[in-house]
């Protein structure tokens, strides 16, 4: 490596520097960690340095990263010479259109390079102190090294309660991703947002995969990048469920109406997002395995907005615990941490215990295994089906917990058809648990009265 190359990014090539500029502009979490230590002089030509200077100056003034359009306007206004101005704007167009694959590798190399430059500066400062022979300044040298190591670290030290208050007061500050279930979305502020964890509680055979597939399909139709991970189903089974969601054609009729399906599907292929289905082994998959897979997607240029994990009980802890319950809580905590780190919304499902089977209403205490799985979730809803409801194709949904809206709300006897994946909460405004018990009581009374009346007819 040439001496001049060790002090700038030129040795990594033009393409690398263009990709780095793209990451600084588009990935705000990354830009927060590097903007204070990236120096315009680290870039090999004048036009790149103009762009970086514009970004840094704007960030210092407004504490945020400018958009491509804003940077372009800054360059047009502040760069007086025509050739550098037009060349910098042309470079900006190249940055915006460049491929974002290998973004994590680009970020990692850039951070290491910038931190190394900070260490060089620290070494030079320490050397000057050592040259004076002033041993009483040892603590100062130690602090210089410590600050150089910490610089650029993405540390969350908390915020002032009045920090960026305008953003806090925005109606859409959460930028939620709708579930597609109108009644549920109305109670949870529009859906689940990035970094938030939603949990579905239901007994086996009720329709956990049905509701998660329905919500994943809805997110895709809202132009989001969706990843649906499952352990027990065949990928073709999940594909067929999505085809039914797209076309409205019942699962059992897809083969006989295949020509109709082929005509309907193309209009759904050109949505603004992606819908990735991934089957993982059910005998050893951990959250780090899932995180590694998601990072590969991100590096390839596909940044997921939301992930559906069907279901969390199939994920194993990364270390041994004294009891199974502790391990389950740890897995759920790892899942929530991963969502925060990758800035992704996440839904998963948990199995109900025996008391949830055939229950009129599945409540929190019916969760199988560790209750910590429920404590960690930001939003928890349950699905209940009695034998009669299974025959009728209906179910009772309930909001058990919500950190951003009202809970203790039920949607009794809504349409819940596993054959068509049609789940409709729009006809129910939701009632309280107490009101739901009264409804159930009246239904039971009516059933008893009818049975008595019927028995009298045989006498």
Account of the protein in words:
With 459 residues, the protein is an alpha/beta fold. The protein folds into 2 domains: 5-150, Orthogonal Bundle (DNAb Helicase, Chain A), CATH 1.10.860; 182-450, Rossmann fold (3-Layer(aba) Sandwich), CATH 3.40.50.300. The protein has 18 helices and 10 strands. The protein has helices at 14-26, 28-34, 46-62, 68-78, 82-97, 103-132, 138-150, 165-168, 182-187, 208-221, 235-247, 258-264, 266-269, 287-299, 324-342, 372-376, 387-392, 433-458, and strands at 197-202, 226-230, 275-279, 306-310, 345-351, 379-384, 394-402, 409-417, 422-424, 431-432. Strands 1, 2, 3, 4, 5, 6, 7, 8, 9 and 10 form a 10-stranded mixed β-sheet that branches. The chain starts with 13 loop residues before the first helix and ends with a helix. The model has no long low-confidence stretch (mean pLDDT 85).
